[in-house]
Amino acid sequence: MKNIIKETTDKYGYRVVVELNQNNQLIKQTQYNPDGKTIWYINEYDPQTGHPTKQTEFKSDGQTIDYIEEFNPETGNKIKKTEFHPDGVGIDWIEEYDPQTGNKTKQTEFKSDGQTIDYIEEFNPETGKIIQDIFYNPDGSIRSIEEYDEDDDDHECNCEYCDQ
């Protein structure tokens, strides 16, 4: 038996296409821009829990990816977000989240080439507070590490890697 495709409109009159599995459970929803032709975003769902597993949002052309969010199918908490360059190919940054608390655990920023890591911020998954920054040289080696005191948000450079 095939999946069921239904077309409808949302409360604003925008075109929406939903895909249901053989058990009539939502597995995918495609939301269109006001023109009714270009895709605004696509949501994918876990059929057992009903929670979203992935959202892909597109730029106004309906083809170039703006960002992708991934979710824990058990809790519905966001676990990862990848933001792309305007061309939809290179990566601007990636955020990672604790699947249970939903707190950000890591943010990786990329250089303008969309591939080379510029720096990584790490966060305490329990509190969401920043605990460390790691800065990279263009060749991928570590330039410096800054560690933070969670109690007062103060930080100091680990001079083993500093370029001072």
From TrEMBL:
Record-linked SUPFAM superfamilies: YVTN repeat-like/Quinoprotein amine dehydrogenase
Residue span, DUF2963 domain: 21-56, 58-109, 110-152
Pfam families found in the cross-reference section: DUF2963
Gene3D superfamilies for the chain: 3.90.930.1
Lineage: superkingdom: Bacteria
Protein name: DUF2963 domain-containing protein
Source organism (scientific name): Candidatus Phytoplasma solani
